[in-house]
Amino acid sequence: xxxxxxxxxxxxxxxxxRQVVEFSRRLSESDAYDYYASQPRAELLVAEDxxxxxxMCGFCPAASKGEDDCEIVDFRMADVYVQKGLPIELLNSAxxxxxxxxxxxxxxxxxxxxxDLFRQAGFRDTADPQQPDTSWLVKxxxxxxxxxxSLRWKVLGRENIVHRPHLDAxxxxxxxxxxxxxxxxxxxxxxxVVCIVAETVDGKLILERQYRHAAGTILTEIPAGILEEGxxxxxxxxxxxxxxxxxxxxxxxxxAVEYAxxxxxxxxxxxxxxxGVSRTSKRHLDSTEDINVYLIDKETxxxxxxxxxxxxxxxxxxxxxxFVLYTDLARRRG
Length: 334
Prior knowledge:
By secondary structure, this protein is α+β, with helices and mostly antiparallel strands. 21% of the residues lie in helices and 42% in strands. It contains 7 helices and 20 strands.
């Protein structure tokens, strides 16, 4: 039995259609691939037996919950495979995959016809306060939990000392858990940021070289930029990639959601993997941008990472995760 991601040439039969509320559309035999390929935080896994697809299990953002929560959807299989242990194997694979997308919990409606299987896989009963008439089974995807409440600081006062587009600086008076009070803790608030590991249709990775004045040097980077107000992270990522490189299209998947520098600033970085991009337009650089774009083979980029030639920390993290999840270069070296 082989479990893998859905491919464009797969033919899927859905015993029943299911509406995914988050995106207000129905999955059907003809658009199943396009749906999952177009949603960066959704994935459909299929199981093959002797070359034939006999089961599927997917996940997508949970409609009534936050960005850390996903919903298990399209859990289907031929009855004969239930007795062969395939349901648990497939469900565990989907849950493991969901955790790599940054989800912290996975849920499924209690009305699912395979409730016993979900409970066997570690899902527990819970209630959704936003949907009191709906019961859910939920599984925690965190690898480890810590008792952290005693570590939190208490904010006693706050002053906004700098206010600029995309940047605010604050001076806070804070009290530590041991009772000590600091009058001058400085915190920076930046707009959220996106970065993109972009792989072209012929398997090259898109890198950029540009001068970074704060560092006083020219750095090798992957495409990145700031979210505009009201913009969704994936839309910002697609816009930034096209503006900076002229490339677009492809399949988009989220790699991670991380703090850029949690000790000093509060903004998050959303990293994406864009597979199969191609040149779609001319570049549209901002007035302060001077960027050289390069298409480089994966092996060379991997060596650049190992050699420290790509040293923007959050951007390098996205590349490392790409190489671990979507190539065998890291495993081959190990």
